[in-house]
Write a structure and sequence with these properties.
Oligomer: single chain
Strand content: 5-15%
Structural class: alpha+beta
Family: Belongs to the lipoxygenase family.
Protein name: Lipoxygenase
GO molecular function, one term: oxidoreductase activity, acting on single donors with incorporation of molecular oxygen, incorporation of two atoms of oxygen
Largest sheet: 5 strands, antiparallel
Distance between the termini: 56 Å
Pathway: Lipid metabolism; oxylipin biosynthesis
Helix content: 25-40%
Keywords: Cytoplasm, Dioxygenase, Fatty acid biosynthesis, Fatty acid metabolism, Iron, Lipid biosynthesis, Lipid metabolism, Metal-binding, Oxidoreductase, Oxylipin biosynthesis
Amino acid sequence: MLHFKYLTPLMKFRTKAPCRAQLNSVVAATVNKPDHVTFVNHRLVLLPTSFMKMPRFLCMTYVTRSQPLTSASTAAKTSQNITIDPHPKEMEEEKTKFETGHEGKKIKGRVVLMKKNVLDLNDFKASVLDRVHELLGKAVSLRLISSVKGDPGFQGKLGNPAYLEDWITTITPLTAGESAFKVTFDWEDEIGVPGAFLIINNHHTEFFLKTVTLEDVPGEGRVHFVCNSWVYPAEKYTKDRVFFVNKTFLPSETPLPLQKYREEELVHLRGDGKGELQEWDRVYDYAYYNDLGNPDKGPKYARPTLGGSSKYPYPRRGRTGRPATETDSNSESRLPLLMSLNIYVPRDERFGHLKLSDFLAYALKSIAQFIRPELEALFDKTPNEFDSFEDVLKLYEGGIPLPEGLLKDIGDNIPAEMLKEIFRTDSAQLLRFPMPQVIKEDKSAWRTDEEFAREMLAGVNPVNIRRLQEFPPASKLDPKVYGDQTSTITEQDIGNTMDGLTVDEAFKQNKLFILDHHDALMPYLRRINSTSNKIYASRTILFLKSDGTLKPLVIELSLPHPDGDRFGRISKVYTPSEEGVEGSIWQLAKAYVAVNDSGYHQLISHWLNTHAVCEPVVIATNRQLSVVHPIYKLLHPHFRDTMNINAFARQILINAGGVLETTVFPARYAMEMSSVVYKDWVFTEQAFPEDLIKRGVAIKDANSPHGLRLLIEDYPYAVDGIEIWFAIKTWVEDCCSFYYKTDDIIQKDTELQSWWKELVEEGHGDKKDEPWWPKMQTREDLVETCTIIIWTASALHAAVNFGQYPYAGYLPNRPTISRKFMPEKGTPEYKELESSPDTVFLKTITAQLQTVLGIALIEILSRHSTDEVYLGQRDTPEWTADTEPLKAFDKFGKKLAEIEDRITSMNNDEKLKNRVGPVKVPYTLLFPTSEGLTGRGIPNSVSI
């Protein structure tokens, strides 16, 4: 029996374990009065001042730990009558020496993890409690699982527990990241090569387990485990955590002793569909979007459930299990705003500490939603209006100083986690923003027709323009409901502006293109325009010039017929003009188009077509594919942070009264509108070549690179996107071909078939009966499916997200709201337009407060975090032990580097006018790597 040389007992507890409240109170005393008390082995003890001259945590020189608990169930249930005995490791060594006469074979290991006190920067209490638990004998233990020898239950034989060494004496600085610990396993020949291990955290606090590496394993050498997972205290789990070696196994190839562990892990991740999920739960499950509204606040905040109906179909989101609202049993209750960071997603899907720090730092600039009255008081002689374009520029060139009282209000209203980030912002002037690229070189070039058209090919929303294939443009809206919605544009409107070509000749030469928002918006205009917003449904026809640029020919602005929908529309047509009041009207017409395009971009191109459609893939993959499955390893990097950013979006962005409803013209109808558009979503058309062909901007051509010929040769998004798409597809083909030599293997892969079935029938359940879903019977099906998923999560999202601040950070270029209709002749508004066109323009588009909110939002969304992982990169180089996939991935990275060089070269080619344009902003949105607020870089996933 060992003794505490310097510890004086003050009082004794009963033999039962101390409760957490007792531990917490003692730790608090330890922290507040470090030379008085601590708690060891159920006894309150006094630490003399001389003892405290040592390192602030107890050293194992003076204290030896008692027997650690050995399983999650034991941790939760066993009575803890603990004595001060030698550490089990020492006892086992003595036993081995006694029985064999010599020390047994040992396997050395290295465990890399990140402690919670590091990730939370200053969670000192967690660090103290973990050390107390070590003293109580509650260590972190690991047990190897054999991949060759099974127990009577056909599960891999377990080795003896081994414990992380020197936890107490390893003091991690608060600024440090990883900590490395030694672990020593007793080698048993019958265990053979380990294929997995169990880990039990008997500490008070969770930690992030990164890797475990074993050296000199007999018959194998080095064995490596990539974990990258949070491990919570054992009492939080119903089963011990298991991690598998970084090898890849199809279900049929899994070593027999590991099969049960593989199957049971997936069952655990699926959960039972019951109850509210907690942060330590690892459950991936589905739910409808029934948490956007808050009917308990009143009818104004009620929103329809999206998903589960033919009226409002939608992809599924992750389940949280929160209770229903009091008012509506079909609506899920919401967290209070200040609890937004606590919204449930599986812990391994949450932002890493660097990403969260960056996110919080820049999120401070959007705290205006808490403090609108104070912000409004800051604005000058015309509240909530910019008086001139120079007034707008103050947001970037000088900033709006915030008074002291306002800063206090910020502190009273933002989550505590944000407080430690407040000094990471640019300065106390929270309303000072970086200069957007679109006005950095030239403050007025954005107003030109050339730039207006170029941004349809190389701006933030280059995914909607299509070739005009009928004239006049027709509508697909039901004429029985909406009457005649055919365009009123005539040949006379455009006939003299096409370099001498007739409309028919321009058609035959593929020279006419259209940006058409008419059908998507018309059904909602009557409701939207009953609010303070005044919106048109627009059609814009453009002509492809001989130099490869586009020029706008005509803009049609339409409204619902005042006598009712079945009477059709009333439309007006506007043509280009540069001088006088007609020039001002043309500028307004382009602004109304930009408003349409901004809303459609944010709700459809960005949110629906990347964020929303990707989340079911994340859920299905974690529920049905083991971490050792090759398709899991292929796709997993492309899921990083997606569930977390989507959960934040539901909480503060796309919810009723959230930032998106405040700053984008559809307002309360925004998400409903995206649901209607989802009715026409087709998975196979998300393949980039299919998208280009469907929009008529490309045709199949066996003589062209990749068998595809662009009809707008200088279409930067398409040119770069084609190269990225086929680079991804080649990598996917190489990877899939290694594991699936024949189609028969795909058909017999039980996990793969379950994954695809669930993704179709559950994840996109409202579309499960569509005939276009791939059947997942061939390698071609698998390759195309995985390429679509990776393309959508990486390149497509990058193209529609990271250009937001460069182009839309200056709101006059991409206004999100229009508040007035076009001035009519004979009205005071028309007269004001003649005398003060800039004033009328600024009064028409997004107001001052909404501009600030919108800019703050897109600045956050357009930034790369400091720990971003880009396309062609992995967060660990040892993500698989298979040589051929590693070589193929290296080839993929080199191909992307070649594409980067090619993009740079094209951006320097003056003949390619659409790559830079009048605003002198090179097209770099599909440049694979970058950092910060640069308008470039393709992250692996929908991560912001």
